Amino acid sequence: MAFAIAADSVIVGAIKAAKFGFGIGYVVPIGLIAIGQFILGHPMAATATILTAPVNPAAMTCAAIGAIYFGWNALTDLERSAIMQKLQSALEIGGELIKALVAFVIVKSKELLSSESTAEFKRFIGDAASMFGRSIADVTRAVVDHAAGAYELVAEKFKRSPGKPDELPRLPL
Length: 173
Known about the structure:
The N and C termini lie far apart (51 Å). This protein is mostly helical and 173 residues long. The chain is built from eight helices and no strands. Helix content is 77%, strand content 0%.
């Protein structure tokens, strides 16, 4: 009896993880498109995006990626095997291809969500903002970005002063 309850809670946890991932993956692209349309002054296009969301292939793909990323590892080996057998039969593809697709989604999602990728993206945004006389802090409005900008400004001033060290140590931010 206790084993059945524990197994049920694991299954419920796996289903919740997959639903969470699917929901995040589905809502984000629809939200981004709608926000962009509103910003561009197209409220009707934003409304159309929301109304046609159930048949939007981009949103469904993102939702599926979210479900795989958050839900695949929450499944038991038996559940993964059952999914793979159904897909092999329905799509007439091999199990190794299915495993490769899942691995690709998980690995690339982790790479995209890593701190290095986030830092690189912030540098890209900062470089683009500087072309318009702005900084990353103007874009994000985050306190940490303001502090980093102030530190870099002070470090640049010290570098230019005669008789000062060439470079200040970098603070971990």
